[in-house]
Amino acid sequence: MAQPARVEGHGVGPLPSVALALVFGALAILSFILGYVGLAAYVPGNHDYGARPIDLLYYDLQLFIINSPPVSNGGPYPLSLEFARFGAPAATAYALMAAVRLLLDAQVRQFRARVSRGHAVICGGGQDGLLLGQRLRHEGRRVVLVDDDATSRASRSLGLLHVTGDAREEHALRRAGASRAAEIFILHPDSAVGAATVLMAARLAGADGALTCYAAIGDRDVYAGLLARHLAGPAQDRLRLHLLNLDEMAAQALLEAEPLPKHGSGHVVVIGLGGLGQALLIELARARRTMLPFAAAPPLVVTVADADAQAVTRRLVRQAPVLPQACQVRARNVPADRLDEVTLPVLLGDAAPPDRVYVCCDDDSVALRVGLRTLRARQHHPVRVVVCLGRGSAFSAAFHGENQLFDDAHGTLSVLAVPELLLRPELIRGGVATERLAQALHTSYVEACGVRGEKMGSRQALLPWHALPEAHRESNRDQARHLGAKLAAIDCILVPAFDPSIAFSYRDESEVQMLARMEHDRWVRERRRADPSHPNLVDWHRLPDDARDKDAQFVRDLPRVLADFGFQVVRVGPPPTNGRSVRDWTRLPDDGGVRGSDGYERPAGRRISGG
């Protein structure tokens, strides 16, 4: 990726400007010359001082330290000497201040980083960290970058404060003022380093305000495992953690920048199944699935080409059941670098002419070559070719923008630098897993309402996510955050999807009703703040049957929604027994149910194991 453009900062900023240094340098030279001329005119008439040229030179140099004997008796002096005896000390003062600033600049910057409050901290990432820091500066934020010394000079030119060190170490994050920061962005490419930095940030999270942490986990399997544990875990008051996978986020940004046409052929080609290609394939399926409640859209035909496309596709089908539900995938074991004018027409003709060809090769040179060859192989069909480059912002600028050098084939060739799309603060904040799970829960709710005969758009809650009022969005987010409590109540955990043939099922209807009641209790707590006059803000036993049925349907659909999201529900507790539970239960008078020590009510006869 090209060096980010300079952004002027409001911090300590760069060292003294060249222009100011040139001004005072010229002042020093002029004062030296005029001082000598003035001394040569003044000293010979005063017999107390030597008048040899070397004496004049010595007196002239003493002007710069305000200690020249000929100008210590009060004058009058020649005009040139008057100028020199003030100009020379001024140049000396500037030189001293510049030297002090050079010596103390690093210490001042370190101090400002340590005492910052409400700022953003970026840990690692190299050039990616600099790009994100630049964009956060555009928001008017103070930014501290914790990285090795290689990014120190560039961060200074961008107006960023820089702390040299390892973000896994406590003293490095303390020097960055992490405990008083508003946001921490962890971009280290090593997943283990990123996880260790998260743990250190959690230790330093201040008690005076919650710290939001966005942590990129590069390894997709590690990311999925940690995300499952995080979604099912308890909420933290001091650290709001959001795990990210940059490939998934890049795929979302790519579909945002290059979406599929609403009325196209329904055929897409993806070339290259590296991290970005795999994530793009799943995001295409999710996007298609989101369209289904609002339009009778057939499955999307996706032709994929890679050296091991069939094996990769089989693994993705196991991990993401939404893929075979929303897409018809045709995998072709063809290495991307072997696609040419002979093989590409066959690939493009696998179905109807494709609406998009996404080239997602790991090698930028191969991606650009395949993209340009695809333009020649598409024949008479107006196929749009999207070439995704990992570090190719220069190529992207050459095809698009003010300094365009190459034709974009009448708008049918798009060359995109993925980091430029991806590293946007608003995308990172909006692409967190809780937000996407909330969208999936909303889509499931819309589908269930459609089955009951409700028309899409007939009320505010039945709108697409992008048009949904914020209050309803927040309700879906609260549902996502409450997932762990529901699963724990029935002795289940969340794991990354590994075998779609192992389907989760509730033991009986009493489990469904128990979780439906938990969902209603959650909704009541949330809705009392937003709409205290809602007619359904009543106890479960007085709730109308249709409202109960909606909560129960939500519970029944939850395993499928999580499966679409890439997770499976696995039961880990022992089967129910007639023995007494180790939890403290209190019998309820109305329906013979019990209330656990966690505050949630269970039907009679149901016992939850565990402490």
Mean pLDDT: 82
- Major sheet, described briefly? 6 strands, parallel
CATH topology of the domain at 258-389: Rossmann fold
What coarse outline follows from CA principal-axis ratios?
A: elongated
**Total of DSSP H or I helical runs spanning 4+ residues:** 22
How much strand? 5-15%
Q: Note the gap between the termini.
A: 52 Å
Relative helix content:
40-55%
Cα-atom Rg, whole angstroms?
34 Å
Topology:
Layout: H1 18-42, H2 53-62, H3 79-115, E1 120-123, H4 127-138, E2 143-147, H5 152-157, E3 161-164, H6 170-175, E4 183-186, H7 191-204, E5 211-216, H8 220-231, E6 239-244, H9 246-257, E7 267-271, H10 275-291, E8 300-306, H11 309-319, H12 322-326, E9 327-333, H13 343-348, E10 356-359, H14 364-377, E11 384-389, H15 393-399, E12 413-417, H16 418-422, H17 425-430, H18 433-451, H19 470-481, H20 483-489, E13 492-496, H21 509-530, H22 545-564, E14 567-571, E15 586-587, E16 594-595, E17 601-602
Parallel strand pairs: 1-2, 1-4, 2-3, 4-5, 5-6, 7-8, 7-10, 8-9, 10-11, 11-12
Antiparallel strand pairs: 13-14, 15-16, 16-17
